[in-house]
Description:
The structure holds two protein chains of two kinds. Chain A is 30% helix and 20% strand. Chain A is of the alpha/beta class. Chain A has four domains: 2-123, no CATH class; 134-298, FAD/NAD(P)-binding domain (3-Layer(bba) Sandwich); 300-369, no CATH class; 439-594. A five-stranded parallel beta sheet of chain A has the order 10-17-11-12-13. Chain A has a four-stranded parallel beta sheet with strand order 25-24-26-27, with helices on both faces. The N and C termini of chain A lie far apart (71 Å). By secondary structure, chain B is mostly beta strands. Helix content of chain B is 0%, strand content 43%. In chain B, a hairpin with a 5-residue loop joins strand 1 and strand 2 (15-20). Chain B is globular and about 30 Å long. The model of chain B has no long low-confidence stretch (mean pLDDT 90). Chains A and B meet through helix 14, strand 27 and helix 15 of A and loops of B.
Amino acid sequence: xxxxxxxxxxxxxxxxxxxxxxxxxxxxxxxxxxxxxxxxxxxxxxxxxxxxxxxxxxxxxxxxxxxxxxxxxxxxxxxxxxxxxxxxxxxxxxxxxxxxxxxxxxxxxxxxxxxxxxxxxxxxxxxxxxxxxxxxxxxxxxxxxxxxxxxxxxxxxxxxxxxxxxxxxxxxxxxxxxxxxxxxxxxxxxxxxxxxxxxxxxxxxxxxxxxxxxxxxxxxxxxxxxxxxxxxxxxxxxxxxxxxxxxxxxxxxxxxxxxxxxxxxxxxxxxxxxxxxxxxxxxxxxxxxxxxxxxxxxxxxxxxxxxxxxxxxxxxxxxxxxxxxxxxxxxxxxxxxxxxxxxxxxxxxxxxxxxxxxxxxxxxxxxxxxxxxxxxxxxxxxxxxxxxxxxxxxxxxxxxxxxxxxxxxxxxxxxxxxxxxxxxxxxxxxxxxxxxxxxxxxxxxxxxxxxxxxxxxxxxxxxxxxxxxxxxxxxxxxxxxxxxxxxxxxxxxxxxxxxxxxxxxxxxxxxxxxxxxxxxxxxxxxxxxxxxxxxxxxxxxxxxxxxxxxxxxxxxxxxxxxxxxxxxxxxxxxxxxxxxxxxxxxxxxxxxxxxxxxxxxxxxxxxxxxxxxxxxx
Amino acid sequence: xxxxxxxxxxxxxxxxxxxxxxxxxxxxxxxxxxxxxxxxxxxx
Lengths: 617, 44
């Protein structure tokens, strides 16, 4: 961090928040609120004189509330810049000045109560998101008695207790009597791998963190007896298994089973843990002077606003979704934005540094090149057809379309560098003013025509998105999963490209069943495009029902690239549905749609005729 | 604000009640057959 702070080409903006981001790769405009520290960071030498005189005492967040800090403080000992700031919520000295002791104590006169937040506008080429993670608060897990019993602490609190810069200066003591505990129990997977809590994911770091903690205890306090209660130990990294073995050899007792209940002896404040050892099925009561809950990692609570600012998507667990899990693991779906660290998934220091290096490298490639090569699958606008409705810019998940303005006659502008090619704008545009390169309406319609040219009654037209459903079909193939061959796939980059008119056209051409298939909501490679697919299909179901066509004939399925088996199952089920559609029903559908088309045409002619005199005037 | 509505699976015909937030698309799957062709057919 010191190197970063001193680097001539790195501008470090600590204690700042991003307020607005606009633009696109190579041309991001970022508005940053540099919060007032009330201390001039260029002058402050961190001499500590102000702290000595500050009368306010509040819990220290960095020390997990195990010690206190003053209202003027430095957030952590290693903070860069090493300068103080005033916590104005707790300070007594502001408006009206009731205290002002720090002002008197500061010889360099770097305290300024009139300091204001500063807005800084930056022109940025690429962005790396590395906002870190939060840890799980185990208060809701009553069985472990966190908050009820003082000697039940979290792994983060343990970390502070054993750290030399912690509240006890590294002397490990029990909170109730400030004596060295003789028996310690570590409980693993607290807030991880739990369906009950809706946290199915493994937090990745907790097993090795506990192993490290047990080794620290064994080295510093050989007389302390450690027990680790676990579901299974995941020591998968380089040298991790050796550490695990060393921990076992040092006498740490690993018991496979998670305590069902923890209760306290009111006199000694020691704890009892009821655990079923799943290796032998026996339930035993274990005693401990202290319990450490190995808490899981979770996405930061303020992730959502950041996600919206940067047009990013998250997976079901709330971590940010990468552009491609294997081929672009540090790229976000929005070009020019990269990830580093736990913002993308729980990871340890080594993996975070690896990812950060990769992200820096990816970003600098773009900056050094000064230009970017994009896929030619982008949207193009025909201004002659545009009616300024603004739908295209509203539905674009990447904010790649600058909105139209009817008053000034400005047409929507598609920023090619920002367009990812999902095709949602083209599908939503009722005027057909937007066309997708390589996936034009004409190309899509001719694929439908080609499928239904012969024996349409035997065919199912299936639209499948490139990244998930189509790849799921590929996996089904490579896994030798059998599915009916009369289900014919039309690949689109995203299910968002599937226009209403494609579905209607397929029914007009005699398709018994049409399937629209895309990514699961949490896997969408185009941020929120899949949500527009669902809206459109729901609208189509209503339209079909209104026309007297069974909505069941339009199917919607979310299939991921890993769901080859599901792909096969869905296709077999859809084939069964197709067999139940009669020829009469299909003929009737064709008639209904023809009539509707005629009605629409007549309406259009009437509308145009009504506009003629006005145009003449 | 979440509301309760009746949903129908367009593959197996199963009808069930579930919570939904108006105008907020949500991934749904039929509790009986697992299909995503689930349509809201009316309020509770």
